[in-house]
Specification:
single chain, alpha+beta, Alpha-Beta Plaits, two-stranded antiparallel ribbon, 6 strands, about 30% helix
Amino acid sequence: MPVPDGYGCLSRSLLSLVSSCCRNFERKKVTVSSRFRKLSHTIWHCQYHIVWVPKYRYRILHGPVKESAESGIRAICGYASCEVVELNVQPDHVHLVVLIPPKLAISDLLGRLKGQTSMKLFQQFRHLKKKPYWGNHFSGQKAIVLIALASMRT
């Protein structure tokens, strides 16, 4: 039997009260396009186009060196929780389109990509170290990062 409360109304269980209130309000469901990703407090789409070249733009990225570079780049991006959208390794440069979460700095990922890829390639292919003026550096110190900005209406 319902018990009267202090205001002269009959009290109902909390569950029935909440369910009746929720029926009266129209709920808006926010849909997010599949190209956007979610974190706990953000909706993001940070897509970067990165281009970098071997030192002196040598044409060495072909055959097994190319395959090793591709697998290394994909592994490093996967480890860093980044998604490779497109990867194109040419004989003298690398194009990489990657989704990078906002919690990860692009400079950190680039340093990791260039450093670990060069170490892996120098270990696997010893003949790359024999170039007289490389100085154990696979790529130059610069890379080009192109950013595409997108806005989302709320």
